[in-house]
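The instructor's notes for this session suggest beginning with a concrete chain rather than abstract definitions. Hand out the sequence below and ask the class to guess, before any prediction is shown, which regions might be ordered.
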Amino acid sequence: MSNQNPPTPVKVPSSAANYTAATLDQDLRSELNSLLISEGHVTKIQEHLLHSLHSNHSNWPTTVQNHALALLRSGEITTFPALLRRVIEDVRQDTALGPSAANGASSSEESGGGVVNGSKKTDAANGNASNGAAGHGSNRPSLAVPQSVVEEALKVTRESLDTVCEIDDSGTT
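After discussion, reveal the predicted structure:
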């Protein structure tokens, strides 16, 4: 992975901050994606995201795995494609409920207490936590990606984009 800036960074208009996936110029998107891949930033972002997910007190990967196993064991889901669709939909649903469901008691974790809503972290990893279960009609923990993980992923992504982009304040594309 290169730590140096590319020879010619992509010039991005300052107005791009207001673009959506639908309005972003396809050529600009392609050029950015190519640079992010060739400079090793995509791998860096993925590795950082995985590390953040695994090190977060919510133990999100294990929570998702336990949910998938419960769906299979109950017979509610019987095929892998249906399992993927259901788990992704459940993650989306829990995410739509808001960040409070995903964060639980992050202040306890950040203070080093190792306690989540009165339970030890291992209880949360075993699916016994009650944080975030309200609102989706079951006793399972929230499947929303923790907000702190999202923020870390966005930070690393911004840093990567800063190394391959040059913001053009002249207003031209």
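Then share the key points. The first helix runs from residue 26 to 38. The mean pLDDT is 76.
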